[in-house]
Amino acid sequence: MVKDSKKYTDTEGWGFAKFSGNDLHPTGKTASFAKESCIACHRQLAEKTGYLFDVPMKVNTERLIKNLQK
């Protein structure tokens, strides 16, 4: 997630990315993906955590970074 209140007005100031599978491939094919999928869950967390999940995910961070650099 990236915070930019001017760029991401449709998702309450957050830019989202979602990855799936062992190779951490990006999901969501259109710009409306975050508006339709991500913000609905994250909005429920706004009051307590500022839209952020506070439970760590089990993700191979090194592999994620390598895939983003491709």
Describe the structure.
The structure is a single chain. The protein is α+β, with helices and mostly antiparallel strands and 70 residues long. 34% of the residues lie in helices and 14% in strands. It is built from three helices and four strands; from the N terminus they run ββββααα. The strands form two sheets. A two-stranded antiparallel sheet has the order 1-2. A hairpin with a 4-residue loop joins β3 (18-20) and β4. The chain is globular, with a radius of gyration of 13 Å. The model has no long low-confidence stretch (mean pLDDT 77).
End-to-end gap? 19 Å
**Major pleated sheet:** 2 strands, antiparallel
Question: How large is the count of helical segments?
Answer: 3
Rg, rounded, reads 13 Å
Helix content: 25-40%
Number of strands: 4
Task: Briefly characterize the structure.
This protein is of the alpha+beta class and 70 residues long. The protein has three helices and four strands; from the N terminus they run ββββααα. The relative contact order is 0.17.
Features:
globular, 70 residues, single chain, two-stranded antiparallel ribbon, 3 helices, alpha+beta
Q: Which secondary structure elements does this structure contain, and how are they paired or packed?
A:
Layout: E1 2-3, E2 14-15, E3 18-20, E4 25-27, H1 33-43, H2 46-49, H3 61-69
Antiparallel strand pairs: 1-2, 3-4
